[in-house]
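=== Structure Prediction Worksheet ===
Name of assembly: unnamed complex
Input type: mixed (protein and possibly other molecules)
Chain count: two
Listed entries:
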Amino acid sequence: NAGVTQTPKFRVLKTGQSMTLLCAQDMNHEYMYWYRQDPGMGLRLIHYSVGEGTTAKGEVPDGYNVSRLKKQNFLLGLESAAPSQTSVYFCASSPEVKVGTIYFGEGSWLTVV
Amino acid sequence: LAKTTQPISMDSYEGQEVNITCSHNNIATNDYITWYQQFPSQGPRFIIQGYKTKVTNEVASLFIPADRKSSTLSLPRVSLSDTAVYYCPTRGSQGNLIFGKGTKLSVKP
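=== Predicted Assembly ===
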């Protein structure tokens, strides 16, 4: 059982380039999330989805877009990467919000130069 | 808006019991209290959750008083491998978990 899988794990981008981070979960979870983690800042929610075809903004959505075309996949896009988006990105999924237990992927390290 | 407060860091030695306390400001009546553990270069991992009183699993114990304004994560006989950041997230207005900065536990030999 793979759980939550993120690709790629590492990526270096030039300022202005675009890229997409892919998150896949095999637990049939309804809810999926993208967080970013920066030194000393904890985990901050970028976007989330409460089901296939739905997306919503989190705490720090600017500069990112997401799509949830299939229940098992949640894509995070950077249309024009900026150095401020250098971070570690974590995808997560959960069966429902109120349960409180969410499952994280291993992270994607993104550097924008 | 619900908010939690926990110590930024704690030090311990192998074999000791470690208790990390989190204060829960305005926790929702029907919300569970959860704790997560994060090792370097990994995503956070759920370790325990509870609603009231005491919960114990193979990893830790969780103590929650009747007023639910705080919770204490107890790690019995810690080892070097318990060095990690521990989070007691709160629920945001969108239903998401807000993790904050967590407590960095350093276990020394």
